[in-house]
Amino acid sequence: MQLPAELRQAYESVLSETPVRALTEAAERLSLRYRQVEAASVYIQTDAERLAYLAMRLPATYAAAHRVFSELQQRVPSLAPRSLLDLGAGSGAATWAAQEVFSDLQQCTLFEQDRALIALGQRLASHWQKAHWQVTDLRQNGLLPTHDVVIASYSLGELAEAQAVQVALRAWQAVAQALVLIEPGTMRGFGLLRKLRDALIAQGAHLFAPCPHAQACPLTSDDWCHFAARVERTALQRRLKAGALNYEDEKFAYLIFTREPHQRATSRVLRHPQRQAGLTQLQLCTPDGLQSASINKRDKEAWRRARKTAWGDEW
To answer: What is the pTM of this model?
Structure first.
């Protein structure tokens, strides 16, 4: 996946104003600090570090949000949302993804507490006429404005668990059509989503994806559900991340809840399919729990589908 041409041009233009060496040093400080503190609002301390964070994270955040929004749009095209509320928007990557996926969007509201990140986001999207940025601390209580789709992308994990649950419940009250939650594809990120899943189901939210059911999660405590979005790396990103590959796989976990019930996936592929000569094996989450499926080449129709099935797809 690549960034939209307009976003890529603005992204590269903003970053070109700072020497690569300064960005590299800032990226190293961020990486070191991130091992101790996962909240971006805590570990980002300077403008150079904000730019390094933008350089390293914007494409991956965009890719994850784009994949999740695409799941919603492809499976329920009748939703056609016209408004979006982005909670903890950062520099606006998730809103960019929403505008690429949902052609009917007319209003985008972005809540972010870091004024400098808002300024960066406004520079990246100086042409946006339908976006309203607001300096907001998600920990503050109060009603959120109703929008068709509400997203919290890589933001609830920066809060204390009890605060994250309260924000998710407030977000659900603001939803007209769908709530999207995205966190890092780690045990910690999945663990938080698992708690939010239970809290939102208890409030009557209809779980749509990725789970094929709304029963208790069948995964054991030492396992986690996550997926990946492959995104192109720029030359600057390869340098900042000390990576040789021209792409990276952004690992993420997500949940989609809808105001009205919609048909869920029959089952979900939880791992990369294991392919051998004449045999494909799938690890699945199903309404009957975790299952394995072995597809033999002799079953031509199932084999044809299995060859096109990837990690995260419905089966």
So the answer is: 0.94
